[in-house]
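Morning. Coffee machine broken again, so started the prediction first thing and wrote up yesterday's gels while waiting. Chain of 1112 residues, entered below exactly as on the submission form.
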Amino acid sequence: MPRKHRDGQHKPLGSPQHPNFDDRLHQTTQRMQATLQLGLRPPPSLQQEGQRRWFNSDAGLQLQAVRAISAFVEALSKFSGNWSSLQAPLEEAVAALQGLLGAENEQVFTNAADVSSRLVALLGSLLNGFGGERLVIPLVSLLSRPKLSTILSAVTALKGIIEMSTLRDKRTSLINSSNSMWKLLEVSDALGNIANVIESAPHEAEIGGPIYTALIDLLAVIMERWPKTRYSVGSRPKLREILFRCCSSVDDTAAHAALRSSTRIALCAGVIGLIRKDPRDAWLAIKNCLNSSKKCSIRVAALHLFALLGGFSAFSLLIDEQNLEFVSSCCVRALEDTWICYRRKQSTDMELLAIEAADAISVLLLQTGKHHIQFVRAGVLKVIFQILLCPCVSKEGNTSLESELDTMHDHDSQAINELPLFAKKQNPQFRIFLWETFGWLGAHCKGEAQELIKKDIEFAHAFNKLASFACNYVVRTVIRRGQRLTSPKDMHSRSLYREDQLDKSISIHISDQEAAQMCKTTLILLSSTSEYCSTTTKVLLDNQLQQYAEEPFTFLLDALGLGYKETSKVKSEKVLTLRRLWTLSSLSYLQESKRKLLDTNGANVVFIIIREHHKANVRTTFGNSSLPISGVHGRIMESKSCKSCCSHVIQKWEGDDDVLFAALSAFARLFQGSVWAKELTGIVQQGSVYQLVKNQHGEGEVISLLWKLAGDKDAAAGVRWWASSGLACLGLYGFPSKLGENSKKMLTDSVLSDLTFVFANGNSLQCHAIMLLARCPSLLPLLLQPDSSKQKLSRSDEYDDLILQQACMEYNDNAVDPRTQYSIDKAVKRGDPVKVQASARLSYEATKYILEFIYAGVVQLNAKNLTEVKLLAKRCRLKTLSGLLNGETPTWGAAIPQFSLASLLGDLGYQLVDIVLQADTCISEQGAEKCKLCKLTSDHVHAHRLVLSSQCEFFEALFRSGMRDSAEQAIQVHRRKEVVVKVVYYLYCGKLLSLSEVDGDCAWSHLGTQKQLTYLQQLVELAELAEEWLLEDLQQRCFERIMHYVRLNLYLCPEVMSHAATSGQGFIVDELAEIIAPMYTQMQNSGAFDTLEEELKEIVRTAHVRMSLAAF
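Came back before lunch.
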């Protein structure tokens, strides 16, 4: 509101008597308003003052208006009063600029763009209050102009408007985006215009220039605020190439802008899938940016991009050894530079660089592979020790690591007392990253890396000290406050003191999150695949535990179980709960500690936690702890929370619920060999496993819960591995699945069997060549293996396979001549089983169990057959089964072995196909290509009767009916080929075929309306076919996917409804009506229902009325 004059009357805006105006601003404002009156007019349909537009096309008047606005902006730069008093002139200036930016005269729109950028820079976020968003569309249109200075001014103005239209949450550092702003950018195709300008750069040298730098930076601003734009940018190959090339620019501003944009597209899993096809440009960009001569901010951005790229499964395997060696040395050097600043007690600006380096190292070391040796050689273990444990020393001289270790060894108590002050200076998140890095290094430290740590005295000392300190916090979690040491002779012990004194000197400054991470690191080291790391950690932990009283675990279990009994509940997000669970799991690796925990019902306490967490579907993530998101690590936490476009595609190995994972790891270790496990094993052996699984109460509760977790496809890999380890304690080995449960029925089906093993005791086992081919080729006689399967064996593998065949199997010459593949194929087609005489050393029982695992993916074993099955599983190269039989601890980061018959859909299984599914549509005769297998020119899919009958009750009944269709070599399916392909893929793999490489919303939103509609219509037809073939699970999955995708674009609903009604899918029609009911009025007015049948309109109208009545 304008201020009142002394006489109490309002003075008009722009009046020289107004207290917020000087004479020059007043004159400039009046001249501008007088000039703009000649061109500003309200539109015919909008008579409001604020909606006026510029309509004058005279070039001279347009230039005069631009000069007047420019003078007004210049005067505004010296104005210090209340901006609201300039409401009218500012709105007029913005309205005029909206029209002048679209003028045909080059000088007019160039000057208007320059004035717009100056006005945006002057007013900032206040410009939105004066209609600043009206400039977006005309500014975007200028990006297609040939003059680069015009583009630069437009980009500068656009960036300012976008940045000022979005606000950053001060508490979470996340950006709240404006929907209205995005609609303007979407309508004007801002992303397409920006990308086209960058891709059409005439010379490579210009890519690093100020104009293209501004364009690339604008891309980053847009992608930062609207995640769904990342895929559309990153899916353009030429644009990706330019971005990565610009990262290596000698101009730091250009390099930083390119790295910023590259980092944003790397937050999209769909883009990562595209980069993985050819990662050379990405790695070259990172390598050039990590050079020590680059600015710290450039190195930080490069490390951030490196961590994102390396965070995807097996991505580190795509980088060559030379580049990985360089990158690993750069990461370690960043940590070393930070350590130097710490030890000299200097404030450092490189802490963010060190945090990014620690995050990148941690991400890569989590994955298995040969790259760990590169980080060990670079000295990462030494640097981690220096930063985490070495207290501050004098600035003078550079003492060696060995002397620092000796100082800690001789004056351990003094060093530990100095540590809290040292740790207090470091960022808590940084220290957590370093402990996590140390854990992953030990988890996968095998072969050459393990030998290097053992032989190098500095590395060995650093590992021992870090492991010892981590074990110390495990012990601190166990003991009760006030408990005293009983054996001060150990090399790691201090003098006699109280635990509460330790807490005062250390725990206050070492955060609870770091203490929990140290306990988790101890568990990772104990479960390491490296014998040196696991054994050393066990010895250190055992030595420290022996200092305390005989029964130190009662307090731990009482505190852990508190709240999970009866009605009271402890808040599971407390870091202390996680710390205790990691500790409990670590103690289970020590035999004596495990015995004491079992004596105090430790397994029962942990199972109660698992049950309650699973029942309540609680999600407690360690990363979401109470650490404030501010300061130096706020940017990292912000970037990790920006993966919303593909968050459901990416999942941690431990999952979202750290408490559930920690409890499962502790339970599986404690359960193994316990009396409780032996009792339940006896019950399992006496009854049917599938019946016990259905019993969710009493004795079947443990089995049911573990079975469900191990077979849950949506659960994290780590959760499934530990649940499977728990099942192994009951004599159940493997991962349950619906596909495996159906496939197991084939084992007893003698109708379609084509292979018979005959044993020395006269028993025989019938099986199917295609199952052995898909699941265990080593058990299939070599003469039955297709050539494509044989070629996959290396020389050593082929030699081992021949030994297996010679040791276990002898061919029966009376059955089928094995000298030619043709004769065997002929026998198979004739229906005569191929008989294979097994060696006398091959057990009938062991082979039966192996076949059960091959068919079902899980097998129930008796203890008396365990040894024979172990030997045969090893010979058959069934690594998953061998590991579970030997009680091996799950490897951190290991993927779940998927039960799938997908290999039979390729060249491997085509030689054994025996049925053809013919689709409705046919390829035109002109230019039609014949199928390589059957010479058909119509659309069709090859399959196997055995798989179809085991996975689908419809085909099982058809093939057993004895009717004419049961013997036909081809079955007509009245659907499109795309639908037939999807249903066959589901029967072989147990999952719905993805829409693209990444089944994420980012890829879907940029697919195009027509392609989206086509895919949804295919899903409707697939649901119809699933209903016809009695595939209820597939029908439900189609329904869920349709509902998910239509919610992203409600205007697809009418077309999908019509198609669903035609296909007889009434439940889809009803659900779509409920979804669009809230938008009924808007869609009705927009004409979205014009093509909809009256009956369907009535269904939607009824749903809308029902929703409206429910609101009252």
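The radius of gyration is 35 Å. Going to sketch it on the whiteboard this afternoon.
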